[in-house]
């Protein structure tokens, strides 16, 4: 759902070219650069620079981790959904997120890593996932706020990735973005019902949820452009198409119009229309909170990671049984 890997990973050399070992590799590098400049897609079997491969593997795997961990904040509301309709919608959404993770793990595997390796990196804390999933869902309104704001920010982030230079990632994102659009609409609809037809207490609950999710959503786009040393190289390679600040501004502009329809406000006294820029101005983001949560000290970091590790350990017998069944089937076919 959410990609912050480009902006939270350590600097691996920026745009400095890797040392070329052979003349043949120099020719391959020139061909690769020419294809990137021409806007071509790179397939998994094509030659690619090692730093390009490593950057993609980190971003795609951490995107996959975010989809899987992202099932947790909403999953605990499935049994408490207020109606059968809302329960079925939420079930479908959580199932979609699991599917997104599988698409992305499969794309990452084409870069030479196994799924076990990627999951081990997640479970041991070596790999990150989107900071947004380390916040709690305290009320039913949080589920709607996640759909409207969090998934809305995800769509803004992810639509440009449909043109990512790495073809397996781009193809996976086409389907993911279609499903995320449904998630955003259902979240908005859930909040709209409460705001238009609900009680005063329900409307207050919606506003309180919006207040809590607004600033973390703005952080989803990653640090400001002048504090994102790896973004420039990502854009040079065609992995990233639009800068963090540009995406964040587009999200704020769209959210302001939607908030007016809902009848909610955002917790930012500096929000005002700038006629000269033709955009909404917004206040200063607390980046110290962002880095604290990314570093593992958010409200739910330990809880989310522990839940994923427990699920992995509890499912060990299923994986073992599946492998045994596969071996038996192979033996039968061989016979």
Short description:
The protein has 14 helices and two strands; from the N terminus they run H-H-H-H-H-H-H-H-H-H-H-E-E-H-H-H. By secondary structure, it is mainly α.
What is the element layout, followed by pairings?
Elements: H1 5-8, H2 23-38, H3 50-69, H4 71-75, H5 84-109, H6 115-123, H7 140-158, H8 167-197, H9 200-219, H10 231-237, H11 244-262, E1 272-274, E2 279-281, H12 287-294, H13 301-314, H14 316-334
Antiparallel strand pairs: 1-2
Helix pairs in contact: 3-5, 5-8, 7-8, 7-9, 7-11
Q: Could you name the key traits of this structure?
A:
mainly alpha, two-stranded antiparallel ribbon, 14 helices, globular
Description:
- This protein has 335 residues and is mostly helical.
- The chain has 14 helices and 2 strands.
- It has helices at residues 5-8, 23-38, 50-69, 71-75, 84-109, 115-123, 140-158, 167-197, 200-219, 231-237, 244-262, 287-294, 301-314, 316-334, and strands spanning 272-274, 279-281.
- Strands 1-2 form a two-stranded antiparallel ribbon.
- Strand 1 and strand 2 form a beta hairpin.
- It is globular and about 65 Å long.
């Amino acid at each position: 759902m959410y990609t912050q890997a480009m902006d939270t990973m350590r600097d691996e050399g920026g745009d400095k070219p890797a040392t070329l070992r052979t003349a043949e590799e120099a020719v391959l590098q020139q061909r690769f650069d020419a294809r990137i400049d021409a806007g071509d897609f790179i397939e998994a079997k094509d030659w690619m620079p090692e730093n390009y491969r490593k950057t993609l593997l980190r971003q795609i795997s951490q995107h996959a981790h975010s989809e899987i961990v992202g099932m947790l904040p909403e999953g605990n509301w499935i049994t408490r959904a207020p109606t059968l309709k809302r329960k079925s919608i939420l079930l479908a959404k959580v199932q979609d997120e699991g599917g997104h993770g599988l698409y992305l793990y499969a794309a990452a595997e084409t870069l030479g890593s196994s799924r076990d390796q990627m999951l081990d990196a997640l479970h041991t804390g070596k790999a990150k996932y989107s900071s947004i999933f380390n916040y709690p869902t305290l009320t039913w309104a949080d589920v709607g706020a996640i759909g409207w704001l969090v998934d809305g920010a995800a769509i803004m982030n992810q639509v440009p990735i449909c043109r990512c230079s790495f073809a397996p990632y781009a193809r996976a994102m086409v389907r993911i973005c279609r499903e995320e659009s449904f998630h955003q609409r259902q979240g908005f609809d859930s909040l709209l019902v409460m705001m238009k037809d609900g009680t005063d207490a329900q409307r207050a609950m919606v506003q309180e949820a919006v207040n809590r999710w607004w600033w973390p959503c703005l952080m989803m786009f990653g640090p400001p452009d002048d504090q994102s040393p790896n973004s420039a190289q990502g854009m040079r390679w065609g992995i990233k198409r639009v800068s963090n600040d540009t995406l964040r501004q587009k999200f704020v502009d769209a959210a302001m119009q939607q908030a007016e329809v809902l009848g909610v406000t955002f917790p930012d006294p500096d929000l005002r229309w700038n006629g000269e820029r033709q955009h909404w101005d917004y206040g200063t983001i607390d980046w110290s909170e962002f880095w604290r949560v990314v570093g593992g000290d958010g409200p739910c970091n330990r809880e989310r990671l522990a839940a994923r590790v427990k699920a992995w350990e509890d499912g060990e017998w299923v994986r073992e049984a599946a492998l045994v069944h596969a071996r038996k089937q192979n033996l039968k076919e061989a016979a």
